[in-house]
Description:
By secondary structure, this protein is of the alpha+beta class. It folds into 2 domains: 1-32, no CATH class; 37-215, Umud Fragment, subunit A, CATH 2.10.109.10. It is built from 4 helices and 12 strands, in the order αββαβαββββββαβββ. The protein is elongated, with a radius of gyration of 21 Å.
Amino acid sequence: MKLYINPKVEEILEWGYCILIAIVLALLVRFYIGTPTIVQQPSMYPTLQENQRLWLNRWGRTTKKMPERGDIITFEAPSVTSPKSDEIDSNSPIAIYNYKPKSFLGKFSYYVLEIHKTSYIKRVIGLPGEHVQIQDGKVYINEEELDENGYLRSGIVTSVSEGGFDDFIVPDNCVFAMGDNRSKSTDCRVFGCIPLEKIESKVFIRIWPLNVFGKVKKVE
């Protein structure tokens, strides 16, 4: 016997299926391919300015590809952004991440929907195995001064507060990143290097305002 379904109910179900499929596809694209975001802090000024809209490329996270020096990345904010002296280990300068949702719903909400999740935007400066030193207002990679004229404003110096990371080797599968607006940036100088698994995306295109629309180029 054929089950009779009211045409109006059938239409509603069809629309429901279409909406569900659209939501699933949108979440897949957001998590694995790319997503828009808004710059909310001045830490990357003048390269990126507050309220600019960006398109983030998340394919690197999907393929677990290590970013390159000069890339502007986003990453999950560490659980401890101002570690105490007894939480800092110069021999293992890795940011502390101790928040891990346990339930499926908690993981979905935090990692996919990104509810109550904070992310930072910074520029990659040091790569795995490199010796990073910050002294006299400058950055040195493997004992050679890093040329940062392509993105730092004239007169900007790089300093590290007492107890911060200023002389260390970047651990395996980690990067050292800083904001271009050094005095207004809370970054790896304070909380340590970022593991590859915590890197979320690379800044790809500036989409708003229209007068600055275009690809955000990497500067080495």
